[in-house]
């Protein structure tokens, strides 16, 4: 069974930067799409950023384009999310996820999930 473990969350101020990490195990890392999802308070889990397994193409939600960067170190099975210019509305739980097959941002179709890491943004 695949395991995904996120880390790097914490308390930051608006405008700050933060780097999240996701360590994958028992997973053929390069054969799976990898992505980040988030849940703001009281909202459903939504796609945020990801990398396709086939060509390494990246995808971003409109809300984070130009501010967040997703990357991966396939040799170490680690997925990263570099977050900059953080806003109050970025506060929430960030989840690492993996999906096999065709690319999709539809949350229920992703196969494996981490436990999430909390990002708090406060002035």
Oligomer: single chain
Shape: globular
What about the largest sheet?
7 strands, mixed
Structural Rg:
13 Å
Mean pLDDT: 96
Strand and helix order: EEEEEEEEEEE
State the helix count.
0
Low-confidence stretches: none
Structural class: mainly beta
Measured by DSSP, the beta-strand proportion falls in: over 45%
Protein described:
The chain is mainly beta and about 120 residues long. The protein contains no helices and eleven strands. The protein has strands at about 5, 10, 20-25, 35-40, 45-50, 60, 70-75, 80-85, 90-100, 110-115, 115-120. The strands form two sheets. Strands 2, 4, 5, 6, 9, 10 and 11 form a seven-stranded mixed sheet that branches. A hairpin with a 4-residue loop joins β7 and β8 (about 80-85). It is globular and about 40 Å long. The chain starts with a strand and ends with a strand. The relative contact order is 0.32.
Summarize the structure.
This protein has 123 residues and is mostly beta strands. Helices cover 0% and strands 48% of the residues.
